Amino acid sequence: MADEEKLPIPPTFLEKVLFYTTATFVLLATFSLFAFLFLVPFVIEPAFTTIFMQFDPVAALCVTAQVKHLIGASNCSWASCREGCTKDLYECTQIRVNYKLGYPPNITATEYETLIRAERSLRKDYDYDNYESPLESPDMDMENQEIPDAIPTGLQGNDSEWYFTGARLFPNVKGCGYPPILNCTIFYGKYKPLGTNYSCYYSRVDPGLVITELDMWQNTLNLVYAMAIPIPSFIISVIYLTFAYFKIYNTEEESEQAPLQSDAEAMATGDDGKPTTPGSDTFREDLACFGHQLKMQLANEKSKEGFESNSPPISNSASLSGTKSSFVNA
Questions:
Q1: Which H, E and C letters describe 121-188, residue by residue?
Q2: pLDDT mean across residues, the chain
Q3: How big is the CA angle at 201 (ends 200 and 203), to the nearest 5 degrees?
Q4: Model confidence over 42-66: pLDDT tens digits?
Q5: What would the pLDDT profile of 87-96 be if each residue is shown by its tens digit?
Q6: Terminal CA-to-CA distance of the chain, rounded, Å?
Q7: Compositional bias (Polar residues) at which positions (predicted)?
Q8: Distance between CA 269 and CA 224 in Å, rounded?
Q9: C-alpha distances in angstroms, 76 versus 171, 209, 322?
């Protein structure tokens, strides 16, 4: 019987469902939080930066104009490509490009040139064909001057074929990534040779920033996935765990403590429902009753001890012979 009383009561089906549901939401909240913290620097922040930089969806024509390979942390303020977005730079390769604006496929080159002229506020009534540049008729002093090694950077004038010269080239808005998505060896092999022509995308906010790949639809889709899955999962998990803690488990604890509380209240109050105190009648009656029962118990024990000490010991053989003789006499 004692072993049967010590056996634990098996949980019911509802208790099992409640346990596994709570464990699932705890794990979901934990993984959602860590997933969001992981996605912030690798997906969410670059996606927002790509949107805020306002890259022109129409590809421009880029030409590699300058390549520098530098060594030293003080010289490497930026690099065209980095495998790893958190490591320090002690050796870097910087690629600068010149680019001219492209034009959408639904308009002609003449119409696009008109748009560019309007954008640069060129006057249509000015005779640009008869304009003579001082560079076309240089004097002897200018011919003897050496061309500087540094190329000019920034927005160019109307007489230049380039819209911007000396722009920094990156594979993406952060200029870094991880294999196999980004391989800097392949990137440098494709864009490092001087004079290489390729399509690129410039930023309207910072025209000196040029990237080689742009997919706004995929960028927006990655941003939606990175925020629409972890954040709602974490919020739903927290709401369920809060509800379970304050409603479900709290109700079970109250139901388990209800019998103990009722016994304590019964002990603390008398038959008339009034609280039992040392000065109350109920307390005195209970104390007198307990004293009377204690005296009766002590008296019974003393009488038993006295009877056992006064009675002589009787052997088993004498008792048997006495019993037999009584049967014979009868």
A1: CCCCCCCCCCCCCCCCCCCHHHHHCCCCCCCCCEECCCCCCCCEEEEEEECCCCCEECCCCCCHHHHH
A2: 75
A3: 145
A4: 899 999 999 999 999 999 999 999 9
A5: 888 899 999 9
A6: 49
A7: 308-330
A8: 64
A9: 17, 17, 122
Residue type, 142: M
Tokens of 105: 């496929």
User: Alpha-carbon distance 174 to 190, whole Å?
Assistant: 19
Q: How many helices (H) and strands (E) does the chain have?
A: 11, 8
Compute φ and ψ for 325, nearest 5 degrees: -65, -35
**CB neighbourhood size of 288 (10 A):** 10
Per-residue pLDDT for 154 more than 50? yes
Question: Alpha-carbon distance 191 to 63, whole Å?
Answer: 9
Q: What is the DSSP letter of 208?
A: T
At 271-325, the pLDDT tens digits run 555 555 665 666 667 667 766 777 777 777 777 666 556 555 555 444 444 444 4
Q: Which neighbouring-strand residues pair with 190?
A: none
pLDDT, one tens digit per residue, over 105-122 is: 555 555 555 544 444 444
DSSP code for 275: B
Tokens of 43: 């997906």
Q: CA–CA separation, 32 vs 164, rounded Å?
A: 44
Strand 197-202 to strand 176-177: parallel, antiparallel, or no bridges (unpaired)?
A: unpaired
Closest CA to 236 of 6, 26, 14: 26
Measured between alpha carbons, how far is 127 from 135 in angstroms, rounded to an integer?
18
Q: What is the dihedral of CA 11, 12, 14, 16, to 10 degrees?
A: 40
* Maximum distance among all Cα pairs of the chain, rounded to whole angstroms: 170
The residue assigned the tokens 């006295």 is 306
Contact call for residues 287 and 280 (beta carbons, < 8 A): no
Of the candidates 89, 80, 82, the one whose C-alpha atom is nearest the C-alpha of residue 62 is: 80
Q: Give φ, ψ of 294 to 5 degrees.
A: -65, -40
Q: Which of 43, 101, 102 lies closest to 221, judged by CA?
A: 43
